[in-house]
Amino acid sequence: MQVDPRGPRFGASVTTAVLVVVLVTGSWALLAAQAVVFAIAAFLGLRYAPYGLVFKVLIRPRLAPPRELEDEAPPRFAQGVGFGFALLGTVGYATGTTWLGIGATALALAAAFLNAAFGFCLGCEMYPLFRRITAKVRSEGKVPA
């Protein structure tokens, strides 16, 4: 499936704001909610992502058509990476391991900010490497050194 690249960038902007609030408040519940947003996008697809739906309904109709579309797989993978960090951060905050909550949230925030501010999707850049490694594991039956 092809997606408008402005949609994930809009989602990264909202995510950036949410993660800043999490870092300021230390709210594990808000971070858990963001983890659910990441999970929906990663496991069900970007067309079901809450921030993507807001973009599709409220923002995209007011914009010119995109110059080009992009494959859904890399941003979807990036959402999965975000889910992992948000889940780890939620566990950290919820169990009182605040350093873990702050660290995981800060890493997710850095990635979201790069996408929101500069259009650089860190998870998307990791995706080809992930594909090569998983292909090698499937073909050789072992993790490459």
Number of strands: 2
- Quaternary state, please? single chain
Name the overall outline.
flat
* Main sheet characteristics: 2 strands, antiparallel
Number of domains: 1
Structural class: mainly alpha
Question: H/E series, N to C?
Answer: EHHHEHHH
Q: Treating each run of at least 4 consecutive H or I residues as one helix, how many helices?
A: 6
Mean pLDDT: 96
The strand line-up of the biggest sheet is: 1-2
Return Rg in Å. 16 Å
How far apart are the termini?
A: 33 Å
Strand content: under 5%
Low-confidence stretches: none
Range of helix content: over 70%
Tell me what you see in this structure.
- The protein has helices spanning 6-25, 28-44, 50-59, 73-94, 98-118, 122-140; strands at residues 2-3, 70-71.
- It has six helices and two strands, in the order E-H-H-H-E-H-H-H.
- The chain is mostly helical and 145 residues long.
- The chain has a two-stranded antiparallel ribbon.
